[in-house]
């Protein structure tokens, strides 16, 4: 198991966009559900968006629906989180998490169910 690695964070203005990337091993890409989570100061880690290992099902937190898009590039072993119309409340450290699942498993996006984590990437949105 190779630890996933995030990139793409930064400091932007309200209304701007960022694209986060999570690179992982081929095994993880093929056999794990993958999610993006975030943790703001003094808050618990929350599930932002998750995708099944087959890529057919996605989940979005209500706070990001219509603004964020999760996608997989199997050839690059990378999962992306496109974040548009960023707001100051999106400021947090964003983590990529993965968990081994069977192909038919229903998608869940609770952070305590994910086992493998990257180190995180900071996203700061100024008003």
Which tags fit this structure?
127 residues; 11 strands; mainly beta
Question: Which helices and strands occur, and which strands form pairs?
Answer:
Blueprint: E1 5-7, E2 10-13, E3 18-23, H1 26-31, E4 32-39, E5 46-51, E6 58-60, E7 68-73, E8 78-83, E9 92-100, E10 116-117, E11 121-126
Parallel strand pairs: 2-11
Antiparallel strand pairs: 1-3, 3-8, 4-5, 4-9, 5-6, 7-8, 9-10, 9-11
Protein described:
With 127 residues, the protein is mostly beta strands. The chain is built from one helix and eleven strands. The chain has one helix at 26-31; strands at 5-7, 10-13, 18-23, 32-39, 46-51, 58-60, 68-73, 78-83, 92-100, 116-117, 121-126. Strands 2, 4, 5, 6, 9, 10 and 11 form a seven-stranded mixed β-sheet that branches. It is globular and about 40 Å long. The termini are far apart.
- Give the fraction of residues assigned to helices: under 10%
On the 0-100 scale, what is the average pLDDT?
Answer: 95
Strand runs, count:
11
Poorly predicted parts: none
Strand content: over 45%
Distance between the termini: 40 Å
Rg from C-alpha positions?
Answer: 14 Å
Specify the overall morphology.
Answer: globular
The number of distinct helices, counting runs of at least 4 residues, comes to 1
| Main sheet specs | 7 strands, mixed
Instruction: Find the structural class using helix and strand composition.
Output: mainly beta
Write down the secondary-structure element order.
EEEHEEEEEEEE
